[in-house]
Specification:
Layout (H helix, E strand, L loop, with lengths): L15 E8 L8 E8 L2 E6 L8 H7 L1 E4 L2 E4 L2 E2 L5 H14 L4 E4 L2 H15 L3 H5 L4 E4 H8 L10 H9 L8 H15 L3 H6 L1 E2 L48
Parallel strand pairs: 1-7, 7-8
Antiparallel strand pairs: 1-2, 2-3, 4-5, 5-6, 8-9
């Protein structure tokens, strides 16, 4: 098959990972319950039994309940991992993709500070930071791109409804990242705009500043599963005769 003249001019695109957390509440002292990430057709979805109680509001919105050291989602028992296993698996997922850019909605003020705290607690921050090229929060990005549309809300569910014309099961991290990936494809921010919103875990508390430094193109990527060598041990414990439902 012959290649067109333009084929040789195509540049490798920055790999993207869409990321979200579900937590025990909305404060910075809450804990991770679910971590999900998606990149194209590849996804990661893991659950953790939190060490603190689920706040009533968070439990109502997300459907998570903890009972006798088991985690339930909408009354169904789910498999869980330790927080360390979840973070190591996330690092492996990121390394598969060749230091991607992490994209999330409202992650600068909420998800990333919680992620950084967990990474520091388990001494995994350096390893994690070496696996990514940066972070972009789609909340301020969408506000800048859609400022002339006079939207009443820039919550992700509202943006998906306004731009994609669909509703989805929000407050489930995996559904959230899938919806965000579709939303991002519609927004199609320019590389310059992406760079102006890019931050790191060290700079996330600083006021976002416009940057004129162009994004660096990724190096040639290794085969997707080459780095994925971490074995995640499921730590689910079932009682004999338990039917997997919360009564």
């Amino acid at each position: 098959m012959q290649k067109s003249d333009s084929d040789g001019d195509e540049k490798p695109q920055q790999p993207l990972v869409f990321f979200d957390l579900e937590t025990t509440g909305l404060s910075q002292s809450c804990e991770i319950v679910q971590l999900a990430a998606v990149s194209g057709g590849h996804s990661l979805n893991l659950y953790v039994i939190p060490r603190c109680r689920m706040h009533r509001g968070a439990a109502r919105v997300t459907g998570f309940r903890v009972r006798r050291q088991r985690l339930y989602l909408h009354r169904q028992l789910v498999l869980t991992n330790s927080l360390r296993e979840v973070l190591i698996s996330f690092i492996a997922f990121l390394r598969m993709l060749g230091r991607p850019l992490i994209i999330g909605h409202n992650i600068r003020r909420f998800d990333c500070p919680l992620l950084a705290r967990a990474l520091d607690e388990l001494d995994l921050r350096v390893e994690f930071e070496s696996s990514v090229s940066g972070y972009v929060d789609t909340l301020p990005l969408a506000r800048e791109m859609l400022k002339d549309r006079h939207l009443q809300s820039f919550r992700q569910e509202n943006l998906v409804r306004e731009l994609l014309g669909v509703n989805y099961k929000a407050h489930d991290a995996l559904e959230d990242v899938r919806a965000l990936q579709a939303l991002y494809r519609v927004l199609r921010p320019t590389p310059e705009l992406i760079c102006s919103h890019k931050f790191t875990l060290d700079t996330m508390e600083l006021k976002a500043a416009k940057s004129k430094v162009p994004c660096k193109l990724p190096q040639q990527q290794r085969p997707l599963w080459e780095h994925f060598r971490q074995t995640v041990k499921v730590t689910e414990s079932k009682a004999e005769g338990h039917d997997g439902e919360l009564n």
